[in-house]
Design brief:
The complex is a heterodimer. Helix content of chain A is 77%, strand content 0%. Chain A is mainly alpha-helical. Chain A is elongated, with a radius of gyration of 21 Å. The chains are: A mainly alpha, B mainly alpha.
Chain lengths: 244, 227
Amino acid sequence: MIELLRETAAWLTDPALWGWGDRTIPFRIVQHLQLAIIPTTIAVVLAVPSAAWLAHKRRAEFLATAVVNIGRAVPSFGVLVVAALLAIRWGVAVSFWPGVVALLLLALPPVFTNTYTGVRGADAATVESGRGMGMTSTELLLDVELPLGSPVILAGIRIAFLQVMATVPLIAVIGSSGGLGRYIVDGFAQGRAARDQVLAGAILVAGLTFLADLAFGRLERALLPAGLREMDRDDVMIETSVAA
Amino acid sequence: MTPLLAQSGDPLIRWDWILSHRSDIWERTLEHLFLTAVPVGLGLLIALVLTVVSLRWRHLYEPIAQTTAVLYTIPSLAAFALLTAFLGLFSVWTAVIPLTTYTLLILVRNMVTGIDGVPPDTLEAATGMGYQRPRRFLEIELPLALPVIIAGLRIATVTVVGLVTVTALLGRGGLGHFILDAFRRSIIFPTEAFVGLVGTVIVAVGLDLVLYMIQRILTPWASRTEG
């Protein structure tokens, strides 16, 4: 075990892996982050406005609950492989962009449902008083319902981001891309001899996810409306935890 | 199993393949249920201990919650790879340990929140009736917190059902085996992958339903006040 840890440390500090090229650690960190940030961003752009509008108009109640219940039960690994198979069938290689599309499918449900729940759950009395003050429907949505729902909405984006971060390494199983997961999957393929590479890859993947989550937590706090910043984020997470 | 020689003109789903692999699918479904039940069961036991500790020594709750949150964020592939390095690829613990840790965040939080939500008046009444601490916990606090606890159990179970598929990379995986096999053997034949994907969803939804029924049976008072 000590031997393995020493080998792993040697692997991680190999200067050849710290340059810039398509096998190096910095390159794969950047690829890993791109594969997580791009689908999450697209999911936010697509799902937040549509879910907010539907919730504001009190429509698609059934859709919102169906999305969360079924969405939670769908295994990310399965989505990834089926997307890959279809991509190959249609003559697209599984690399960066098909990976992004598959990850987008995973990011959409939590963002959609949490936005819906957040807007829908805005305090009725507050919304009513806004209406009484003569606010238009759009003003109510943008100035009252969205800010009040923002803790739940941001929690949804965080869950989506975490789930995508956890799934990015699995792309390495089915395609050439996959960021830091590449080291793990290639290591598995080489058997016992590459145990140091597998362990190093695992440490890199877990470390990057931890740091990204920490950074997202900071961002989340900064984005919250000042009046809601005191709220305990953990309470929002309980109802909305989704498989990673 | 017969090897699949897929043609690009093959239909998306070949029903004959599903029919001729019924026993195989059943076996993998049972494996999937086993790989779900063991981690969730272990997780429930560990979470119960952590909850009792958190309630008894309040200052320990924060570190316990944070530790389980960190464990929860470790990507499944990394967690399996980490343990593979020490336990080997084919130990069942390599699959079970990470799956168990993923349940802890949800279970501990829901248990503590649920028990915290028991009305103080009820507790006082119980104490007034002569209930001692351990008996009050087992007979009053736990049952009253059951709806919240089972809600957590449902999320944890469905989460684990999805993650079991990833253990196909360790030579296990229940229905995840079909997902990986579809990719490894024939890339233009998605029937197997669909069987794995849809089968996993069915198992998840089925277990969720079973837990919901159990909750209805164990907490008849909750459905009466639900409206």
